[in-house]
């Protein structure tokens, strides 16, 4: 056996050339294609990833928008509720105040009516008392009261100031009013006594007025000296009314 | 045919004969072990059989060496 | 009965002083077929692979994955050498199926040339990865006493690479020739099927051993292997 060195060298060269040829025509293009597809796939994946990220972002944005809408609606709703509540309470307060006022007013009017009724009753009672008193007094003899009442009249006249006494004396025609007719002697005595108290007195008339019940009064055109139970009753009635009014006002 | 020829032929025959025994035993052991492995792990049968083929070829190379020696003795005997 | 020696190669013709033997011519034919075939197949490669492109990519991907798993390195620099070895050996071993063609790997010179190229590539890649000094120092690993052993191993493993391939292919061819001369035309067909299997396995083993040699040459600098990045691929 012998080794053919030419064949060995040629085969070695052949294999080296074949390595180069296959690297040139097979491995490089195929690896290039694989790498190109890999990069394309990576690109595609990256695109898909970015698209996914964009979609996620959009979704997040939409969600945020929806949340904002929901929050806005909630805020509006709560604001509306609050305003409704405020309006309601305001109306309620107004109604309460109005009702209170009306109730107070009604109470006041009722009180007024009650007070008026009471006043009326008092007045009626006073008038009734006056009538009863006058009815009772009428049973007394007029002469019994006449002297006393005349004395009281005289005292009142004497207590008047001088100017008024003079004006009263000049106030003609002066009428002497009594509840019952007086006899002549009594009239004369009265005139005399009056003239003592009122110097320059003109001759007075005598008038009868049973409404006086008991008393002695001087009626002039301009002046009046009241001295009778009727006048007292009237004064008391007036005082009663005055009290009522004062009480109402108070 | 001198005695060198006779010895060469005998040497070639013995080389093949003896050189076939040990690889045969080795291949038998290898196949038995591979069968055992496949029986234990049937899902690894592909890997096991691929490795088995390579191993068998490696073992067979020993017998092939002997064959080369025998052929050298027969056809390229440097002393003949 | 006299058989032609399987250890001799016939000189077909001579170009000047260079004798051209039959395996060289067969290799030229295989080179032509492979180159033209690859050129035709890879002329238009697109992003959307056709059937042939998918097959080509599958072949290249499988080889690249083997390189990555075996050598634990990026396959791009080693892919042309390893892939060419595998494809050439496969086609060469199977070329015996064509009548009248003897595979070039059945000649010792072709196998020696291939082993020599693997030997040179081992040195080249080792020096390129570690530097000349570093590669020489890698022979003294793990101990200076192992330098002669490592050196002897460097040659013997190339020699065994050569003899393994040569013996397998040559024995197959020789056996088929013997059976053919003894029995007849169709009888060696089972043997030829076995020979196809053997040829494929030997091509794979040759490529795998080349990967292992180169891988051990480039990885002896860093005894702590870096974490292998196994690619998730089918």
TrEMBL record, chain A:
Chain ranges passing through the membrane: 6-27
Keywords in alphabetical order: ATP synthesis, CF(0), Coiled coil, Hydrogen ion transport, Ion transport, Membrane, Transmembrane, Transmembrane helix, Transport
Subcellular location: Endomembrane system
Single Gene Ontology BP annotation: proton motive force-driven ATP synthesis
MF (Gene Ontology): proton-transporting ATPase activity, rotational mechanism
Membrane topology category: Single-pass membrane protein
Domain of life: Bacteria
First-listed, main subcellular location of the protein, grouped into a coarse class: membrane
Entry coiled-coil feature ranges: 41-68
GO CC terms, sorted: endomembrane system; proton-transporting ATP synthase complex
Reported function: Component of the F(0) channel, it forms part of the peripheral stalk, linking F(1) to F(0). The b'-subunit is a diverged and duplicated form of b found in plants and photosynthetic bacteria. F(1)F(0) ATP synthase produces ATP from ADP in the presence of a proton or sodium gradient. F-type ATPases consist of two structural domains, F(1) containing the extramembraneous catalytic core and F(0) containing the membrane proton channel, linked together by a central stalk and a peripheral stalk. During catalysis, ATP synthesis in the catalytic domain of F(1) is coupled via a rotary mechanism of the central stalk subunits to proton translocation.
PANTHER family given in the database record: ATP SYNTHASE SUBUNIT B', CHLOROPLASTIC
The family this protein is said to belong to: Belongs to the ATPase B chain family.
Protein name per Swiss-Prot or TrEMBL: Uncharacterized protein
Native species: Sphingobium cupriresistens LL01
From TrEMBL, chain B:
GO CC list: plasma membrane; proton-transporting ATP synthase complex; proton-transporting two-sector ATPase complex, proton-transporting domain
UniProt keyword list: ATP synthesis, Cell membrane, CF(0), Hydrogen ion transport, Hydrolase, Ion transport, Lipid-binding, Membrane, Transmembrane, Transmembrane helix, Transport
Domain called V-ATPase proteolipid subunit C-like: residue spans: 10-73
A single GO molecular function term of this UniProt record: proton-transporting ATP synthase activity, rotational mechanism
Entry keyword annotation includes Cell membrane: yes
Record localization: Cell membrane; Membrane
Marked site: Reversibly protonated during proton transport: 60
UniProt membrane topology term: Multi-pass membrane protein
Primary residence: membrane
Secretion signal, residue range per the UniProt entry: none
Coiled coil: none
Function: Key component of the F(0) channel; it plays a direct role in translocation across the membrane. A homomeric c-ring of between 10-14 subunits forms the central stalk rotor element with the F(1) delta and epsilon subunits.
Family under the similarity heading: Belongs to the ATPase C chain family.
Protein's recorded name: ATP synthase subunit c
Native source species: Sphingobium cupriresistens LL01
UniProtKB/TrEMBL annotation, chain C:
Described purpose of this protein according to its UniProt entry: Key component of the proton channel; it plays a direct role in the translocation of protons across the membrane.
Annotated family: Belongs to the ATPase A chain family.
A cellular-component GO term for this protein: proton-transporting ATP synthase complex
Keywords of this entry: ATP synthesis, Cell membrane, CF(0), Hydrogen ion transport, Ion transport, Membrane, Transmembrane, Transmembrane helix, Transport
Ranges that cross the membrane: 20-41, 78-97, 112-131, 169-189, 201-219
InterPro entries per the UniProt record, alphabetical: ATP_syn_F0_a_bact/chloroplast, ATP_synth_F0_asu, F0_ATP_A_sf
Superkingdom to which the source organism belongs: Bacteria
Gene that this polypeptide is encoded by: atpB
Chief place of localization: membrane
Record-given protein name: ATP synthase subunit a
Bilayer disposition of the protein: Multi-pass membrane protein
GO biological process: proton motive force-driven plasma membrane ATP synthesis
Location(s), subcellular: Cell membrane; Membrane
A single MF term (Gene Ontology): proton-transporting ATP synthase activity, rotational mechanism
